[in-house]
Amino acid sequence: MYVCMCHAVTEDQVKRAIDSGANSPRQIAKGCKAGTDCGSCVRRIQTLLGEHGGRPCPTARLAAKLGLADPEAELPANLPANRPIELRRSA
Asked: Rounded to whole angstroms, how far apart are CA atoms 21 and 56?
């Protein structure tokens, strides 16, 4: 089934992109251009990301941002203690 009619991108292509490490509509768009024209497919792409496990939890995003391979690993010692870590949604 087609997800993006503008660029003839199928659901299988989006799933392969997710399996290859894409975890946001923007990253999928970089690989196959889905969602870059009219935008009507972005909601379906987001649904596929959720169903196919492509959207990491905030902890995993923070770990990736800090350069930690494992989100369960200890945080670096140079982080300030007793201060909340602010997570921001990327645009």
From this structure: 10
Residue 90 in any domain: the answer is: no
On whether residue 63 sits in a domain, the answer given is yes
Strand partners, 4: 9
Structurally, the chain folds into a number of domains equal to 1
Task: Walk along the chain (91 residues) and give the pLDDT tens digit of each residue.
Answer: 999 999 999 999 999 888 888 888 888 898 889 999 998 999 899 888 888 765 554 555 555 566 654 444 454 555 555 555 555 666 5
| Domain carrying residue 63 | 1-78
d(CA 59, CA 74): 12
